[in-house]
Design a protein that fits this description.
It is a single chain. By secondary structure, the protein is of the alpha+beta class. Among the domains are: 78 residues, 2-Layer Sandwich (Gyrase A, domain 2); 118 residues, Topoisomerase, domain 3, CATH 1.10.268; 188 residues, no CATH class; 161 residues, no CATH class. The chain has 17 helices and 50 strands. The strands form 15 sheets. Strands 27, 28, 30, 33, 34 and 50 form a 6-stranded mixed beta sheet that branches. A 4-stranded mixed beta sheet has the order 16-11-10-19. It starts with a strand and ends with a strand.
Length: 886
């Protein structure tokens, strides 16, 4: 290495620059090192799916294999004859293979991937090759060998793995300049995909993780760079104050998961009481919640703020022909399957050669003994003469042989013992030859029908080793969790109305509400100004603040009612508007913009309530009517930039609230998206119904439980739901169920009395199960009877369930359906029925919700419209609204 400084002779005080040229060994060392790490350490080969250390471990285990367990320390020491690195790295690699429960049969404490517990020391644990490993990994006859690093032994270039092992186990490694992350896939699905490929059919494979959990693979991108898999823990509600985590995301363990939950609790993102870790063979983490905390929102918060949800970025990189290759999992499986076919072909060809060789020698042996060719050597005195004599004696009888007789063949004949010749049985010899011919014919048939043979091979693997290897990870499309909707209100908001400050540090001033540190706050002032700003310790808005609240983006249901004076002496106007979006920290003028404008009246209504106010005028001149009522229900909801409708041109003395209002908005339509198992108001999935303030959802599960809930968008639903609809309290629920204790079918009809409580409507016997459920007024059922021996099958019987039994309590057993043996019960079309008149009507004329116009395109300023009042709706926006009088 040399340095050539460039000096500036005219000004030596300036910084000097130098160019350093790298020469000699340094020039190649980095590239050599990078190549070594990529090829010999970090990245698996596409041929067998092994990294070098893994391949050498499996080869060493085969060297030591005698059917019994070996100490891992012994295997590690033996592997060091092939792998030029330390014992710790070899032991770690072996434990990782063993924990995947595929190639190694383990004994002892091998750690726990669920809890993150490490394995015991290698001297305490044992291992041997599994039956599956012996079946698919080894075949010395078709293995290509190379010298080990010290030249003393032979090791395989690649093991002849006849299975997509890399995709089954997954692989991860960081090299120099590149990395690889191949996710594990399901054993059975890989075999099915290989069979489909051999049949010329399309296939798709997705990851399946040993930690189970839930995965959204919509962005998997075939495992290529740029793809993403979102994984979630499986969380369910044990009771109203307890959540249970039964499966965890891949790449985490119970310890790291619990740590992330505790950190989120410390930061105020979620609120929990305590955590219990009962994990043993299966995951069980109990999350206890304080009273008043919503379990549904806490589940979403766990996904949003903890390791209960994580994102994995796959990167398919393998070694092929000593070069890195970036390839997707579909192509990996194709290549693995085709490589397996080639290995099976090589195996068959070797077997065919062996059978033909056995047939050739068995035929020679029979000729040699049956024709007593061995007697021709009695007079020969030299070895060459013996060979020639036997060759001459065989010639008349070898025309049917498939190849020429060699000296080695004749030498083998001379090695036959006299005892064998004396006990030679021609029939048994012919049977052996016939059996060999059958085996040869069978192998040739397989070679001629290689694809069918390979399919049968994969089917055998699935049958022998597929039991208990069903998919663990549930595939589901996730709905993004809005952190602002699920975060716990972890701080308090205060306001100094007179001076115009809001913030979390103004503890001596007026308390407004609880909020989170990611919330936006909407503020209105007496001058008709409005602003949305981020929660902070102290923020100046403007003097004379009249309303402060947490701002909900895209909220069309919170309606602001306002009466204002235009300028110092102008007319008075009334307007109603919603605020769905705006620019943060920008001041908006809600009046007509004239200087000196002032609010006379303001109210914020979370459900679009329209109150009645009384307006009092000042006694000026000859004004006759000094007092009248104004109903906000007669004012259309427009955009916030609308001027509004003129109330009066005269001076107002005061305005008083006369009567609180009810909602003037349409009932909220709610849909259920079965793909993500969530409610929504975006018209995705199946329309459940239109909901007002007190309306609830009816949920009936296959497990025999029923409950009603408020239709919150954050609600979670299980997979065993059989009824999900708008609840009509006076409509009976009809059930036919099998009573496990009495081994008979029963019918019951009941009403739900306890709103919000999950109750069971079948008996607790483990064999009890729901047969049919109906929420129709007059449901019809059909009984299909079993055919009893010696009797004619009884005709099916139709039953009107409404006439069969009266409505009773939910805990009643019900009436016996029939004494006959029942094959099954079917639900038929219900009878027509007019609902009682006292039920709430579904269609009521209401004010339509209008989309907020953009600035500069305000709605009409003087139009009015009469509307009919409706009941309060939208149960999840609680609160009376804030009213301000001036």
């Amino acid at each position: 290495m040399s340095e050539e400084p460039i000096d500036n002779l005219e000004n030596r005080d300036e910084p000097q620059e130098s160019i350093t040229r790298v020469t000699g060994m340094f020039k190649d060392w980095f590239l050599d090192y990078a190549s070594y790490v990529i090829l010999e350490r970090a990245v698996p080969a596409i041929e067998d799916g092994f990294k070098p250390v893994q391949r050498r471990i499996m080869h060493s285990m085969k060297d030591l294999d005698d059917g019994r367990y070996n100490k891992v320390a012994n295997i590690v020491g033996h592997t060091m004859q092939y792998h030029p690195h330390g014992d710790a790295s070899i032991a770690d690699a072996m434990v990782q293979i063993g924990q995947k429960d595929l190639l190694i049969d383990t004994q002892g404490n091998w750690g726990n991937i669920l809890t993150g517990d490490s394995a015991a020391a290698s001297r305490y644990i044992e291992a041997r090759i599994s039956k599956f490993g012996l079946d698919v990994v080894y075949n010395p006859k078709i293995t290509q060998w190379q010298a080990s690093y010290d030249g003393r032994r032979k090791e395989p270039v690649n093991l002849p793995v006849m299975f997509p092992l890399l995709l089954a186990q997954g692989g991860e490694g960081i090299a120099v300049g590149l990395s690889t992350k191949i996710l594990p896939h399901n054993f059975i699905e890989l075999i099915d995909a290989s069979i489909k490929h051999l049949q010329g059919k399309r296939f798709t494979i997705f990851p399946d993780f040993p930690t189970a959990g839930i995965a959204d693979v919509s962005g998997y991108n075939d495992g290529l760079r740029g793809g993403k898999v979102r994984v979630r823990a499986k969380i369910s509600q044990l009771d109203k104050n307890t959540l249970v985590i039964t499966e965890i995301p891949f790449g985490t363990n119970t310890s790291s998961l619990i740590d992330s939950i505790l950190k989120a609790n410390d930061k105020g993102k979620i609120k929990i009481k305590k955590i219990e870790d009962n994990t043993a063979a299966d995951v069980e983490i109990l999350v206890h919640l304080p009273g008043g905390i919503s379990p549904e929102k806490t589940i979403d918060a766990l996904y949003a703020f903890t390791n209960c949800e994580s994102s994995i970025s796959p990167l398919g990189c393998v070694i092929e022909d000593n070069k890195p290759l970036f390839v997707g999992v579909t192509e990996m499986l194709r290549r693995s399957t085709e490589h397996t076919v080639e290995l099976l072909k090589s195996e068959l060809e070797i077997k065919l050669g062996e059978y033909e060789e056995q047939w050739h020698f068995a035929s020679l042996e029979r000729i040699f003994i049956e024709n007593r060719v061995y007697r021709d050597i009695e007079e020969e005195e030299t070895w060459e003469g013996v060979i020639d004599a036997i060759d001459r004696g065989l010639q008349p009888h070898i025309k049917h042989l498939k190849r020429a007789v060699t000296v080695d063949d004749i030498t083998r004949l001379t090695e036959i013992r006299i005892k064998r010749i004396s006990k030679f049985d021609i029939d048994k010899a012919q049977q052996k030859i016939d059996a060999l011919e059958d085996q040869i014919a069978e192998v040739k048939y397989h070679l001629a029908n290689l694809i069918e043979y390979a399919i049968a091979y994969f089917q055998r693997l699935k049958k022998e080793y597929g039991t208990g290897r069903e998919r663990k990870t549930e595939i589901r499309i996730f709905e993004d969790v809005d952190a602002a909707k699920v975060i716990i209100r972890n701080t308090k908001l205060y306001v100094n109305r007179a001076e115009g400050f809001i913030g979390t540090s103004l503890k001596r001033d007026e308390y407004v509400c609880d909020c989170s540190d990611i919330d936006d706050i909407i503020v209105f002032t007496n001058e008709g100004k409005m602003m949305v700003t981020k929660v902070d310790s102290k923020t100046f808005i403007g003097k004379d603040i009249i309303h402060v609240a947490v701002f909900k983006k895209k909220d069309k249901r919170t309606i602001y009612n306002m009466v204002y004076r235009d300028g110092t002496k102008g007319a008075t106007y009334v307007k109603r508007f919603a605020v769905t979006s705006m620019t943060r920290d920008r001041e908006y003028d809600l009046t007509n913009g004239a200087k000196g404008s002032k609010l006379w009246y303001f109210s914020a209504n979370p459900n679009g309530e329209a109150e009645v106010i009384t307006i009092f005028l000042r006694q000026v001149g000859s004004i006759k009517k000094l007092k009248w009522d104004l109903d906000f229900a007669e004012v259309l909801i427009k955009g916030r930039t609308s001027k509004g409708n003129r109330v009066t041109k005269h001076a107002i003395k005061k305005i008083e609230l006369k009567e609180k209002g009810v909602s003037t908005l349409k009932p909220r339509k709610i849909w259920f998206d079965d793909t993500v198992q969530r409610l929504n108001v975006d018209e995705r999935g199946e329309l459940i119904g239109e909901f007002r303030g007190e309306d609830r959802l009816l949920i009936i599960k296959q497990s025999g439980t029923v409950k009603t809930i408020l239709p919150e968008i954050t609600a979670h639903f299980d997979d065993d739901i059989i009824v999900l609809e708008k609840w009509v309290p006076k409509k009976p629920i009809s059930v036919v169920y099998y009573n496990g204790e009495r081994a008979l079918y029963y019918v019951k009809r009941f009403l739900i009395e306890n709103e919000g409580r999950e109750e069971s409507f079948i008996t607790e016997h483990p064999n009890s199960q729901v047969e049919i459920v109906s929420t129709d007024w007059k449901p019809m059922a059909e009984i299909e009877f079993k055919k009893e021996r010696g009797k004619e099958r009884k005709d099916n019987e139709k039953i009107n369930l409404e006439e069969f039994i009266a409505v009773k309590g939910l805990s009643a057993i019900g009436n016996q359906l029939t004494k006959e043996k029942v094959n099954q019960v079917n639900l038929l079309d219900s009878l027509p029925y007019d609902a009682p008149e006292d039920l709430p009507a579904e269609e009521i004329e209401v004010v339509d919700e209008t989309v907020e116009p953009t600035e500069g395109n305000a709605a009409s300023q003087d139009s009015t419209s009469e509307v009919k009042k409706t009941d309060d709706d939208d149960d999840d926006l609680n609160g009376e609204g804030q009213t301000t009088l001036f």
